[in-house]
Structures are given as structure tokens and as C-alpha cells.
Amino acid sequence: MKKLGIELLSIFDLPPVEFIQLAADLNCLNISLGLSQFPVPVYNFEPWSLRDNKKLRTEVKAALQDTGVTISLGEGFGIREGRHVSAFAQDLELMAELGATRVNTVGMDPNLKACVEQLGCFAEMAAAQGMAATVEFAPGLTIDSLETALEVVEQIAHPNLRLLVDSMHFFRSGGSAEQLAAVDKHLIGYVQLSDALAVAQNPDYMREATFERKMPGAGELPLQEFLAAVPDEGVVSLEIPNLAQAKLDGHPAAWLQQCVEAARALMSP
To answer: How many Cα atoms occupy the beta-carbon half-sphere of 32 within 13 Å?
Structure first.
């Protein structure tokens, strides 16, 4: 059975302990988490950092233990030009300390060959910390489609590296549910769910993806077919950041509850 989760981007700058409790209240026991706050102060919470605040790390571990929530995806590991992934060593140790089961990366170095080399190193570093690794593709990134992502993963051939498939990125990069259904399910390690218009209205794709996503079922993406094409076991996590809704509500709880209910309706057999 698919397990519904909530992604860090969905809650913007909500502090991590509050995020964990909110996820538990919504019976979503899988979350993604980074080591620092979303860079845009949407809700204007106090800044926080899990890198610099040992007390906060202790509180997060206690909250995870108390609620049964798991960090199913660690974020903040973009592969960039001129920076080797070895620089992530300490952050990966912290993710492992927090109990993250998996860490994700995206290819932002415009040199695909360099991305591939770095991805192999990243997968090995994650494995050394007892965590799985995923690579996410999206329009505008170096690894920009399912086809490219599959080629990269097959070229690296590391048993610890699999794909992260985001519904909005997948369909906007030209993917189809039939194409996804043909992929070896073992290669899909994590799934992110949101809705959107079929054709972009905003010329800035990354702004739309970061601030203007829609509740599942409120857009035009074929999400039921998408969900049928991804593995039956594993996490399907809501990545539904919506800045207009956040400004209207002042807190993510109500929006998340609506999105959780909508996602569960789609996921019901």
C-alpha cells in the first residue's frame, strides 16, 4: 500500500518540530526535511537550522520518536558546478543522525557528464551512511526528463540510486502515464504528488513549481493514471506549495488537511 507523506516545500518556513506534529495529526507518517529553513519567510516563523542547533536536533529526534513520523527524504543536496559532493559529508551525517532513510539530489551542473560522476559519488556517500539515494528530474535542470534520468541511473548502475518522480515535473517534461507504467518499478524510489494545469501559464517554470502548485484533483494532470503507474509500495508525498493560499491562511494546517483528503480520495482503491 502506498504511504502518504508531506514534503518540506509544502510547509515553507514552518519549524521542524511543528511540522512533525502537524504531519502526525494528519496521519501522514512520512515527511521530507532539510537542514535549514525555506529561504523565503512566507509565514515569518523564527529562523531555524538543524546544522547549527544541537538542541533543535535533539527536539526533532524526540518528536519523531514520540509521533512515529519518519524522515523519508532528506533535501538540500543539489549538484552544482564547481562544488564536489564531498562537501555534503557533514550534512549527510546529520541526516543519518536524524534517522532519514533516503536523501535526494538534483543535477544543477550544466555539464551532464560531471553530474553523472557526482551522482555516483553521492549514491556511494549516502550508502555509507545507511541511506538510499534518489535523483529528481525537472524541466530546466540538467537531468530534465524521465528519459535522461533513466539513462543516468542505468549508466551509474549503483544499487543505492533510484529515481524520484514528481507528478508536475514528469508531465510538464512531456511524460505520459503509459511511459511511466513501462518503467521497471524497482527504479522508482520515491514519488511526489501535486496537480497543475496541463500547459504552463507562467513562463517561469520554477516559480510555478515552487509557489503555485494545485491541490490533487484541482488541476488538469492525469493523477489517477500517474498513481496507477508508480509502485504500490513506497511513499507518495504531497509537494503542494501555494503562496497565495499561504498568505490567505497564515498557517499551512488547513491547506494541508484539504490536500491530504484530496490525495487520499485519489489513492483509494
So the answer is: 30
- 30-87: pLDDT as tens digits: 999 999 999 988 999 999 999 999 999 999 999 999 999 999 999 999 999 999 999 9
Helices in the chain by DSSP H: which ranges? 16-25, 54-67, 89-97, 112-128, 146-156, 167-172, 177-181, 205-211, 223-229, 243-249, 253-267
Cell 526528463 identifies what position?
145
CB 101 within 8 A of CB 70: yes
Containing structural domain, residue 16: 2-267
pLDDT in tens, 160-170: 999 999 999 99
Q: Which pLDDT score, from 0 to 100, does residue 201 have?
A: 85
Number of domains in the chain: 1
Contacts of 100 by beta carbon, 8 Å cutoff, 6+ apart: 33, 71, 72, 73, 74, 131
For residue 245, the domain's CATH number is 3.20.20.150
Q: What is the DSSP letter of 39?
A: S
Q: What is the DSSP letter of 79?
A: B
